[in-house]
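Trying the structure run again after the queue cleared.
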Amino acid sequence: MAERESLLAALVGVARAAEGDTKPTDSTWEVLFAGLRALDAPGEYDALIQRAHGEKGKLVPQCANCASPCGRNNDPAPGFMALGAGAVKEKILARMMALAEGTPDRAGGEKLALGLFALGEDWDEEWLLKTLNNL
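Done. Tokens:
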């Protein structure tokens, strides 16, 4: 279970890096789709975690050598799924896994990034339900 959570955390890190003034690319969306599809395929976790970290490095290369790291684009700490309304986070994750079965594209990738970003936050149930309704 810890490896699955590590993959999910790496995907949250990519979603965090894709938000804001960065320029996500097709490869960003492909990483999110592939990672979510593989959550039930343990043999693929390590390669996908490395791929996600590589993609995050492309999106925010300055973070790797930052003299004053803010942590904004970090993968969340273990246990992040239990923060806030964990049951709603599980519903968000289930919805995203279903969305990830489609063809990787910008519109779908942006939805996945929105959901992943929310999973890494300690939001209350109301905010998480709003996110769920926007997926």
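The radius of gyration is 14 Å. Worth checking whether this holds up in the mutant runs.
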